[in-house]
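Entry 0007
Protein: ABM domain-containing protein
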Amino acid sequence: MTAPKFFVVAHVISRKGALPFWEKRLDALCGVSATESLGDSYYWGQDLNGDPDSIWGLEGYTHAAGFFLGHVSTDIFKREMKLVDDDLLLKSVQGLGSPDYDLYHYDQYGGYLKKPDDKDKDSVTSHVAVHHFWAKDPADQTKILDALNKFSESTKSVEGVQSALVLKAIVVPELATLWIRTKTQDDYKSFEPKLAALASELKPLISKTEVYQSRSFIGHLDLK
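Output (structure tokens):
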């Protein structure tokens, strides 16, 4: 039995004026990610929730070791993280242990990152929305994930939707996440009523929902 792919949804909270520096750092990091034996996805964008210097990312690996051992052990990662610290890009505390690196770890539960017939499936300028669903009872996480999986399947015929990845949080047993990518922000706005209906359907099971949006500018998805 093969293990599910491992994913990280990352929010990096940055100081004012940090975005141009992050764009340079991520250029090298994306390049090395694509060469890693366990690396699968590395997709980053600018925060659209009111903090334009902060960034959101999705990192995917065929095994968790790709994140915890492989990626962070590369010379390029070490070099670029030193430059991040030297340029004081984080908002409050520098260093890999900083609370400004807000990370959630997941197994892939279902969904997809690309549609085979999408001519723009490898776009690096897509609109991304992260939908977090927090269960009232951790025992209901699977029910929520199953509902998200069913929803993900229904999006395969929706024009403009490029990704609908269903993620099962590993450390936080009440969390399930839907990672949505659309060609444009307008496509996402057109799709929002379906997402609102999904949230309404899940309301009896969830204590809260959080939604975060970003404008992508670099990356790759589903290489393996």
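Curator remark: DSSP finds five helices and eight strands in the chain. The radius of gyration is 17 Å.
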